[in-house]
Specification:
Blueprint (H helix, E strand, L loop, with lengths): L1 H12 L9 H15 L12 E3 L5 E3 L8 E2 H4 L8 E6 L5 E4 L5 E4 L3 E6 L7 E6 L1 E5 L8 E4 L3 E5 L3 E5 L7 E6 L2 E5 L4 E4 L3 E5 L5 E5 L2 H5 L5 E8 H12 L2 E4 L2 H5 L1 E7 L4 H11 L2 E6 L2 E9 L1
């Protein structure tokens, strides 16, 4: 549906008089653009991607996981100097194309704050969750990303940021150049295949990174290595939309290594875990949202 609306919009925008759209054409084009992006309240749900506006209002977006939110087009529907926050809920993913050509891929349960327009500077903020960013090169205008504990200065780079609370916060460089700074003013330059982390003393450190593990989520795969069962179930809970109860605290700390694909159904993913471990994973009685993990 969205593709059809956008195709119609392209036809409507082309005919101009004196270099400008006439009022009737502009109104029709704007309405088609609004219909291609924004869900009416009657169709809005809790699994929609949502834009939080500066006035506190929520805009539910008509976007599937393979669709892209193009901020250059949203500028016609929002205030040009407005900052908005894109919220990606459980079970969903989000794709954003900024007006400078930068691409941001967002994993489930992520929040990205960004300006409608980048005319006042190329700066965005990842507030939570996980994102892979491919930043358009512009030597004269560095791209900056604000994180809760760090700031990034980017010069044409692809990198992954993970801020999930059950995992160690990391910024992983895939290619290009990336300067990472903390709030105390300390900084370091990352090379491809490295990631920035906090040392035990709170200092900023770099270390080698497994790029396959860090970026597999983009291809729909959850790769985990010596990860606690608690962290694994929390991650899967964001994919499938469930909460976990463990029958013992010791179970939470058991570690596992493996990989699961997002295309798997929840039940199939659970069956794979049960087949390769001594775990039992069941739905809490009459509660599809809650699962119980125990020893078999």
């Amino acid at each position: 549906m969205a593709a059809a609306f956008i195709g119609m919009l392209m036809i409507l925008v082309l005919p101009k008089r004196g270099g400008e759209l006439v009022p009737e054409e502009s109104q029709v084009a704007m309405e088609l653009l609004r219909q291609s992006y924004i869900l009416p309240d009657s169709l809005a749900g809790d699994r929609d991607l949502v834009l939080l506006r500066a006035d506190g209002s929520r805009v539910h977006l008509r976007l599937g996981d393979q669709d892209t939110l193009k901020m250059a087009e949203m500028a016609y529907l929002l205030s040009p100097d407005e900052a908005v926050t894109l919220v990606v809920p459980e079970t969903r993913r989000g794709n954003v194309l900024l007006e400078d050509g930068t691409v941001v891929l967002l994993n489930s349960v992520s929040r990205l704050r960004m300006p409608t327009s980048l005319t006042d500077g190329r700066r965005i903020a990842l507030e939570s969750g996980e994102a892979l960013m491919s930043v358009a090169h512009d030597e004269k205008h560095p791209f900056r990303v604000a994180l809760p504990e760090m700031d990034l200065e980017v010069l044409g780079t692809t990198f992954n940021i993970c801020l999930y609370p059950e995992q160690e916060p990391t910024t992983t460089l895939v290619e290009g150049r990336l300067r990472v700074s903390d709030k105390a003013g300390r900084s370091l330059m990352l090379h491809p295949g490295e990631e920035a982390v906090r040392g035990r003393d709170g200092s900023l450190e770099s270390r080698p990174a497994d790029l396959r593990t860090k970026t597999a989520w983009v291809e729909g795969t959850f790769v985990f290595s010596h990860l606690s069962l608690s962290s694994i179930m929390t991650y899967l809970g964001r994919w499938y939309g469930f909460d976990t109860t463990f029958t013992s605290d010791a179970l939470k700390e058991n570690t596992y290594t493996g990989a699961l694909k997002r295309e798997y159904s929840r039940d199939f993913a659970f069956s794979l875990l049960e087949t390769t471990t001594n775990l039992s994973i069941t739905n809490q009685q009459h509660e599809e949202r809650h699962v119980v993990v125990s020893h078999r």
